[in-house]
Write a structure and sequence with these properties.
The structure holds two protein chains of two kinds. Chain A has helices at residues 2-21, 107-116, and strands at residues 49-50, 60-69, 78-87, 92-101, 126-144, 150-166, 170-183, 188-202, 224-239. Chain A is mainly beta. Chain B: Keywords: Signal.
Chain lengths: 240, 523
């Protein structure tokens, strides 16, 4: 993951340096053609954009996403999911998210197993997350990334409520977050969501029960506590 | 102001007592049978004294109610001018300006030597607050300017200047406006109107000086200060009239964008650019003027101007598009105005139409209008209509003030005030209806002329196309090369632009920054 981030930084820097290398001659333009001040025109009904390219109002949207649990220590950090949303206006959208967690353990748990012979596969792990999601579409914008490519962007806040089903039991959960969509066509967008989940969950650390030599624990033996998990979702969104 | 009012009331309280004493002396010995009427009169005078005391004590509502009923008593006919005058001042305190105005008009009609003059002063102030020209003219026509107190002279000079300007007596108007002192709240408006009178009087060079003076005086004001912006636009117009195209373009460019005058400035600047043969700059302005942000604006001339600019640079295809847009947009507008004028005769219907459009400006634009929205909106933006609508709003505010107080509303004075407001409101609506009709008639004539011009422009386009084809056949055409043919995005970025490929999506922060990149297609 870290390496990926480094690669992106290097790529961006390379692009910037490339621009600097192509310093062209200074072209004189008549000053009256440039804006004289930075204030905006006054309208009776001020709106930031007219003829917007991406119209979401009264439209459905389907998302397929991969979710990465950034603060999950033991269970597998990956989840695949699907979401369906209905946009009631250009500001609000309501949707249903379903995510299927991958089975197995995180690399950190495997490391603990190797080093200390701790088998966290004995602990209950999350299986399915189902949430009702509300999106407040706060900012519609655009971004030019090359001479001829413009992405429209949408920054939104999200609030969700639903259930996180563990292998043995379901827990009510809430989540808040924010997300960003980059529309590369009028219908298709890359969607990023950062969410903080809060719900009761079993604590996977149970004294004298995690080593392979220990007696196998019952799932009910694990204590429960309020757990916070940060999730980053990356997916594709289709508007129709 | 409050001190003066208290002094006035206090002095007034002495007057009835004195008058009463004198009367008592002259009447009491004569007839014993008059004793009952005398006692009634005495009661009335006590009531009057009480009312004046209430006025002095700041109980304006109670005082106004008492004075109103006393002003109708025949026994107090001699004091009526005085009672009505004080009643008027009470109503001013209660912010019932229209009702107050009627009291002052009554006093003026009574020709009371003492109170008529005072009433004229007060009426001027009230009419000025209401923005009611009729009352103001009534007040001004009944007074010798030299008799007016010096603190009101600036206002009177300003209003008289306005009247002269309307009567197209520009020299007199300019003289009257220049008499408004620099300390007056009318000073900047007077300066602006002075410049306007000078321009109308074909003295653009003098007007440039006037507008520069105004700008100089407002130098430290905020960028969107109304007086400053108006002066800037006035200066640009004066320079245009002086045929100083470059100076005019520069002056128009200084009009800030977050003022309502900016749109006019951009359009007028485009004319100046055409006259200065800066076609590319003019066409850049049209990207803004004809953007989605101005879809509700009535501006047929701007489309014709755009087509003329295209004619100058031999862009016949673009010209054709713009002329078609003109016909597509303003053809239905023209016929709807014609139909409306044919089918409507009463002023109330004309008013009702613009009133509907006026409320649509606040809420969402909807259907139900017989005229196109752009037409109603344009009519609403006309100075006389706007002013009368403001007056109507002031009447509504007064009505709300009366209705908000249920006790006052039920009182005879409250009922009287509501009746006055209703009458004035009805008459104002009729007056606005007449104004709307006049504007619609003007628009119909203007559109007919513009259609004629569009026909000429189309003729020029066809001729130009013919010549172009001839040149093409002779191998003399310029080809389709554009000015930005060999320039990439780097060119714009290095010159301080933000560059996005245009996808027909208009952003508020881009309005005014669009640039036309085509070039001449003429040989």
């Amino acid at each position: 993951m870290m390496n990926g981030f480094k690669a992106v930084v290097i790529f961006v820097l390379a692009m910037l340096l490339q621009k600097a290398a192509f310093a062209a001659e200074v072209v004189e333009l008549p000053p009256e053609e440039l804006a004289q001040e930075s204030v905006l025109p006054v309208f009776d009904r001020p709106v930031s954009v007219r003829n917007r390219t991406i119209v979401t109002n009264k439209k459905f949207e389907v998302d397929g996403f991969y979710s990465y649990a950034m603060t999950e220590p033991i269970a597998n950090v990956s989840k695949l999911g699907i979401g369906i949303y209905y946009n009631t206006s250009e500001s609000h959208a309501w949707g249903l998210l379903v995510g299927k967690h991958s089975t197995g353990l995180s690399s950190y748990a495997e490391q603990l197993d190797k080093q200390f012979n701790l088998d966290f596969a004995r602990a209950p792990y999350p299986d399915l997350t189902t949430m009702l999601d509300y999106n407040l579409k706060a900012f519609y914008g655009k971004m030019s990334i090359s001479k001829s490519i413009v992405f429209n962007t949408l920054l939104f806040g999200s609030a969700s409520a639903g259930m996180v089903k563990y292998i043995h039991k379901s827990y009510p959960a809430v989540a808040v977050g924010m997300g960003q969509k980059f529309y590369f066509t009028k219908d298709w967008a890359v969607r990023f969501d950062l969410r903080l989940y809060a719900h009761q969950a079993p604590v996977p650390f149970l004294a004298s029960r995690m080593k392979t030599t220990d007696p196998t624990p019952e799932y009910s033996e694990f204590e429960e506590r309020l757990t916070f998990t940060t999730n980053l979702d990356v997916g594709l969104s289709y508007l129709f | 102001m409050r001190k003066i009012l208290l002094l006035l009331i206090a002095s007034s309280m002495m007057v009835p007592a004195g008058t009463f004493a004198q009367r008592k002396k002259s009447f009491s010995p004569k007839k014993a049978s008059a004793s009952s009427s005398s006692s009634r009169e005495s009661t009335l005078r006590n009531q009057l004294s009480n009312a004046l005391r209430q006025a002095q004590g700041g109980q304006y509502e109670a005082a106004a109610n008492a004075l109103f009923s006393l002003s109708r008593r025949p026994e107090l006919a001699d004091e009526r001018a005085q009672i009505k005058y004080i009643l008027g001042t009470m109503l001013i305190e209660l912010k019932l300006y229209q009702t107050a105005a009627f009291q002052f008009v009554d006093v003026i009609r009574m020709k009371n030597p003492k109170y008529s003059k005072l009433a004229i002063e007060k009426l001027s102030i009230v009419a000025d607050t209401l923005g009611d020209d009729t009352i103001l003219n009534y007040a001004i026509s009944r007074v010798d300017l030299n008799d007016f107190p010096s603190n009101l002279k600036d206002m009177i000079h300003f209003r008289l200047g306005e009247i002269s300007l309307r009567n197209r007596d520009f020299t007199k108007a300019s003289d009257l406006f220049s008499r408004v002192g620099s300390g007056s709240s009318y000073y900047y408006q007077a300066l602006f109107n002075k410049g306007l009178a000078e321009m109308e009087g074909s003295q653009p060079a003098v007007a440039v000086g006037t507008f520069n003076k105004m700008l100089d005086a407002r130098r430290r004001a905020p960028v969107t200060d109304t007086n400053k912006v108006a002066a800037q636009l006035g200066l640009a117009r004066a320079l245009y009239q002086k045929q100083d195209w470059e100076g005019s373009i520069e002056a128009y460019a200084q009009v800030p964008r977050d003022t309502v005058l900016w749109h006019d400035a951009v359009f007028e600047q485009s004319w100046a650019m055409l006259r200065a043969a800066r076609f590319r700059s003019a066409l850049s302005n049209f990207q803004t003027l004809h953007s989605a942000y101005y879809e509700d604006f009535y501006m047929p001339e701007s489309l014709l101007l755009r087509s003329i600019v295209y004619l100058y640079i031999c862009k016949y295809d673009e010209m054709e598009k713009v002329l078609s847009l003109f016909e597509k947009t303003y053809g239905p507008v023209r016929s709807k105005i014609g139909d409306f004028l044919k089918s409507t005769s009463d002023a109330a219907s004309f008013y009702a139409e613009v009133e509907k459009a006026n409320s649509m400006k606040i809420s969402e634009k909807g259907s139900g209008l017989r005229l196109p929205y752009i037409v109603s909106r344009n009519v609403l933006d006309q100075g006389d209509v706007k002013r009368s609508m403001n007056y109507l709003e002031k009447l509504n505010q007064e009505k709300r003030r009366v209705e908000a107080n249920s006790a006052f509303r039920a009182s005879p004075l409250g009922q009287y005030a509501l009746k006055i407001i209703a009458n004035r409101g009805r008459n104002t609506k009729f007056a606005i209806g007449d104004m709307v009709k006049a504007h619609l008639l003007n628009m119909r004539v203007e559109l007919r002329d513009l259609y004629e011009q569009a026909g000429f422009i189309r003729y020029e386009m066809i001729t130009g196309r013919k010549e172009s084809i001839k040149k093409k056949i002779a191998g003399k055409d310029l080809g389709a090369e554009q000015i930005d043919e060999n320039i990439d995005r780097q060119f714009y970025i290095q010159n301080g632009y933000e560059y996005y490929p245009f996808k027909g999506e208009y952003w508020l922060d881009e309005v005014g920054n669009y640039h036309y990149l085509g070039k001449q297609s003429c040989e």
